[in-house]
Amino acid sequence: MDLGIKGKRALVCASSKGLGRGCAEALAEAGVDLIINARSEGPLEETAKALRDTYGVKVTAVAADITTEEGRAQVLKAAGAVDILVNNAGGPPPGMWTDWEREDFIKALDANMLTPIALIKALVPGMMDRGWGRVVNITSQSVKSPIAVLGLSNSARAGLTGYVAGTSRQVAGKGVVMNNLLPGIHATDRAKSLDTGVAEKEGITLEEASAQRASGIPAGRYGTAQEFGATCAFLCSQYAGYMIGQNVLLDGGALITTM
Ligand code: NAP
């Protein structure tokens, strides 16, 4: 399917691996030139090369921590004007509500709420001037149904969701479409590290911990980065022009809700 975005330019944050890479791959397949980012240079350069070689698009790789002001400045300088912004960063660590102090919350808010907001502020005005833009924020299913051990994530992502709900309606009239994409459990390093924590705590193997989690998902398995990326590319396509401020859940049916 031609998504109608060939030749557009996208910044995909935190995209050397996992869900961010899935988004970068699907956009590259649609003919979009990319600025990709992650902290570790080696894996990022490998991903950039793979995307160039496979899809023939232009890919600029910027190794920087997107959650810091300096990192964002580096990425924004290399990116220049972009048509598409995919906001992503690593998720906060799990823990107990009694353990989290102010500093832990500030860190989580910086990474998963204030970073995407800063990038939206930096890039959306240009999109509005040009009359076309797409923003996809990778959040989490925890926005709809909080995960107790991920209280830092629940809090920061709920804040971003509130901001997007209001802001998306303020920019839609200028052709900028802003939505959130909510992953349920996907087979990435993040899922593996959460499962490893459960395995250690319960004295079971990693495979047993993953199978235990998968059994609670109606689809009976974890999602893939490819499936996630395809939905992201659709939200960035010409066909998503009337979808404003939505929270699109990809969770294999795990959350039992009517809407
Ligand atoms: P992942 O497989 O661990 O990949 C994370 C990617 O982000 C890597 O490329 C990593 O590269 C990069 N990254 C991490 N922190 C960064 C930073 N500060 N600055 C720039 N790049 C950074 O994680 P994932 O599973 O794709 O998860 C992506 C997001 O979705 C996370 O926020 C996660 O909490 C959320 N999520 C995931 C799931 C799931 O099941 N996978 C479910 C719900 C929510 P470097 O380490 O080299 O920086």
From TrEMBL:
Xref: SUPFAM superfamilies: NAD(P)-binding Rossmann-fold domains
Source organism superkingdom: Bacteria
Stored PANTHER family: 3-OXOACYL-(ACYL-CARRIER-PROTEIN) REDUCTASE, NADPH-DEPENDENT REDUCTASE BACG
Protein family: Belongs to the short-chain dehydrogenases/reductases (SDR) family.
The protein's name in its UniProt record: 3-oxoacyl-[acyl-carrier protein] reductase
